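Q: What would this complex look like in 3D?
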Amino acid sequence: DAKTTQPNSMESNEEEPVHLPCNHSTISGTDYIHWYRQLPSQGPEYVIHGLTSNVNNRMASLAIAEDRKSSTLILHRATLRDAAVYYCILRDGNSGNTPLVFGKGTRLSVIA
Amino acid sequence: EAQVTQNPRYLITVTGKKLTVTCSQNMNHEYMSWYRQDPGLGLRQIYYSMNVEVTDKGDVPEGYKVSRKEKRNFPLILESPSPNQTSLYFCASSPRDSLRANSPLHFGNGTRLTVT
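A: Here is my prediction, written as structure tokens for the whole assembly.
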């Protein structure tokens, strides 16, 4: 099974960059890596995704290791509104009909 | 507004009383899925559907049923709820299989179910 490993929690000071790691050593060759976050009392929210190259959008950046066995979500300047649980998600297997697997997530605390 | 709508948001029921949690999306998405979220366990997939009349088991399907008779709706059915099904449930949809085809998942706001 393709699984992810993330630290349980991380802390950051407001206005500083945050690097959230994810290990996914059994990822299959054609699967994308997605990151979602969940704010308190809300459903998960899409953040970013990528395949092989680093990706940037207005919310964050995604750095993917050359061997694709790990990735890092980068928040360039953490704000209090970024305090959430961040999930690294990837496909379980490489055939057409297999479940999506969420990691347990990293709880990010942002200190003012 | 493009959205995934779950109902009800909160539900308290008793053991054995059949219930249905509805999920509807207005984005013409092919892929829909149900998750449950429990403290310390993160999000776990219950069932998913790649398209109309196509459903498959996720990681924790026991005690649940689903149906996909039309593209927009994907109800979650608990035929005989038990206390261990007390949880926070999320429905999600995507234009196609999310990871293969580069499509983000859109989640509903959740249904908090308590079975006594």
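A: To summarize the key features: The mean pLDDT of chain B is 92. Chain B touches chain A at residues 4, 33, 35, 40-45, 48, 50, 56-59, 90, 92, 97-100, 102, 104-110 (CB under 8 Å).
Q: Very helpful, thank you.
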